[in-house]
Write a structure and sequence with these properties.
The protein is α+β, with helices and mostly antiparallel strands. It has 2 helices and 4 strands; from the N terminus they run E-H-E-H-E-E. A 4-stranded mixed beta sheet has the order 1-2-4-3, with helices on one face. Helix 1 (11-22) packs parallel to helix 2.
Length: 73
């Protein structure tokens, strides 16, 4: 799991982009983000790059767990 809940933009985007580059097509990863700007911008960036956010789940600590799928190389 990639925990970017203590990071700020654009570092959140950069770390997710690096994660996706290392993944194989079709793989799914968990990404932990905090409510606010990152929760809004990270999923948007993932989808703009051609990948998918399969699920967003709010956790008890008010962070969100994203299930991210790499769709292309």
């Amino acid at each position: 799991m990639l925990d970017i809940s203590n990071e700020v933009c654009p570092i959140t985007f950069v770390k997710v982009k690096i994660l996706l580059e290392k993944m194989s097509t079709g793989s799914v990863a968990k990404v932990l983000v905090k409510k606010g700007e990152a929760l809004k911008n990270v999923p948007k960036s993932i989808e703009e790059d051609g990948h998918s956010v399969l699920k967003k789940t709010k956790r008890e600590d008010n962070n969100y767990l994203l299930l991210v799928k790499k769709n292309k190389q």
